[in-house]
Amino acid sequence: MHESGEDYIETIYLLKKRNGSVRSIDVANELNYSRPSVSRAVGLLKDSGLLTVEDDGELVLTDEGVKTAKAVYEKHTNLTKFLMMTAGVDAETAETDACRIEHIISPQTFKGIKKFIKEHKI
Length: 122
Known about the structure:
Distance between the termini: 29 Å
Number of strands: 2
Radius of gyration: 15 Å
Strand order of the largest sheet: 1-2
Oligomer: single chain
Number of domains: 2
CATH topology of the largest domain: Arc Repressor Mutant, subunit A
Structural class: mainly alpha
Largest sheet: 2 strands, antiparallel
Shape: elongated
CATH superfamily of the largest domain: Winged helix-like DNA-binding domain superfamily/Winged helix DNA-binding domain
């Protein structure tokens, strides 16, 4: 999955947790993207089997979509913690950098970071 797809699916997942339901306009507002951009991304996620759109416009992640979103979110949260503890950066900087790193980090490196966090009880 491309970086933008991961951003969209993570955002939909988090909005669902926060608000209970999600529509395209919510995603557009959260990411500060245009509605046509979100509409295109929703179509791609739908075609990939990660998302369905209800008759009322609600975006619903499929089981595979939830699994993917949770994996992206896990990377994001663990990388944020790791950067704050090891690099000593503030939460905002760690969040921004984690969001960029989560898309390119190898599974081996991420596994090592998770191990480090667990061993150091971060």
